[in-house]
Design brief:
about 240 residues; alpha+beta; four-stranded antiparallel beta sheet
Length: about 240
């Protein structure tokens, strides 16, 4: 599939043309199809058409059409970025990578990101907060969450600030162990029964499972100790009920 930034090369801009019709397009009429008398057509932003006062019967030189297409690229990039953001929250790094891959020039991409930031359509801190919350619920560990955010291009200072706020980092001052809670809930669902029948095998499987999700050994040890204790308590209850 051709990239959004390169599709404009299909239109022959080597000769002059006369505007035959101006046809609004899109749900919000933000794009206009500029039809020429020789069956060629240009799709431009409505704001650009209005700014240049384009009208039916107007002659456009080849140079003028080239200029219009070039000036339309930021509008196209903004529209594309907004469609991507409609699907889900994204960070600036993701949008930059996507737009560049689709053929938009670097300066157009930079101006698009600035336009999005000014309107709070993109916010890396907001993205990071949502990412952390989602991945904690999925049982991801600190290392994997941090790596995931950095890999998407979120600045390290933003990543560390969000992780601190979400209490995923243990601190010497508080000794907080709240980061274990969602991991423990996940581990209980998968391994509680196994700790009743085969505690040593369950401990090995638990360690491998949590390591793959980016948890450190301290977290793994805390979860294992809790599951062992609960299994022993459960086994003791069962023994006493039978006597």
């Amino acid at each position: 599939m051709e990239s959004s930034g390169r599709k404009r090369a299909r239109v022959d801009l080597s000769k002059d043309g006369v505007i035959k019709a101006l046809v609004p397009r899109g749900r919000d009429k933000e794009r206009v199809l500029v039809r020429l008398t020789d069956s060629r057509s240009l799709e431009l932003a409505e704001a650009l058409v209005a700014r240049e006062s384009l009208a039916v019967g107007q002659r456009l030189t080849a140079d003028e059409m080239e200029q219009l297409v070039a000036e339309d690229m930021p509008y196209r990039a903004r529209a594309r970025a907004l469609r991507l953001l409609t699907a889900r929250e994204r960070c600036q790094g993701e949008l930059e990578h996507r737009l560049l891959a689709e053929g938009y020039e670097g300066e157009v991409v930079r101006s698009t990101l600035e336009w999005l930031r000014q309107r709070a359509y993109v916010d890396d801190r907001r993205f990071a907060e949502q990412f952390v919350a989602e991945k904690v619920r999925a049982g991801w560990g600190l290392w994997r969450i941090r790596s995931g955010l950095l890999g998407k291009g979120v600045e390290r200072s933003v990543v560390e600030a969000v992780l601190q706020e979400c209490d995923l980092l243990w601190t010497n001052e508080t000794g907080s162990d709240r980061k274990v809670d969602p991991v423990l809930a996940l581990a209980r669902r998968r391994f509680a029964a196994q700790f009743l029948s085969d505690p040593e095998g369950a401990a090995r499987r638990l360690a491998g499972y949590l390591l793959r999700r980016g948890h450190d050994w301290e977290t793994i040890a805390a979860v294992e100790a809790t599951l062992r204790s609960e299994a022993q308590a459960g086994s003791g209850d069962g023994d006493s009920s039978e006597s």
